[in-house]
Amino acid sequence: MSRHVLYRAYTSNGDLLYIGITDDPHTRFAFHDWVTPWWHEVAETKLEEYGSRWEAMEAERAAILAEVPFHNVLANHRWHTKWRPAPPSQAARDAVDRLGERPVAS
Known about the structure:
- The chain has helices at residues 25-35, 53-67, 73-77, 90-99, and strands at 5-10, 16-22, 44-49.
- The two termini are 24 Å apart.
- The protein is α+β, with helices and mostly antiparallel strands.
- It has one domain: GIY-YIG endonuclease.
- Strands 2-1-3 form a three-stranded antiparallel sheet.
- β1 (5-10) and β2 form a beta hairpin.
- It is 39% helix and 18% strand.
- The chain is globular.
- It has four helices and three strands.
């Protein structure tokens, strides 16, 4: 069974740098360490597990919009204030749950 994890990355001062989701935190954090220029600023990460990929994605979106992490593009560009997509169908949610790990280019 896959894990569906939402993570938050903080500085040593408690500033929120980034919010993301993954099914493998260890591998995802190693990837960030390899390609993300600001990842060295991360002093703490907090994890929350969800029952499905869809629930994790919804929680990620809500958290980014509410908490405005410094390095999330969605939060920094502020275009989200007008972006209100229609709720997806159950078939779309099921398809997302079957996808597994999203592409790491995010």
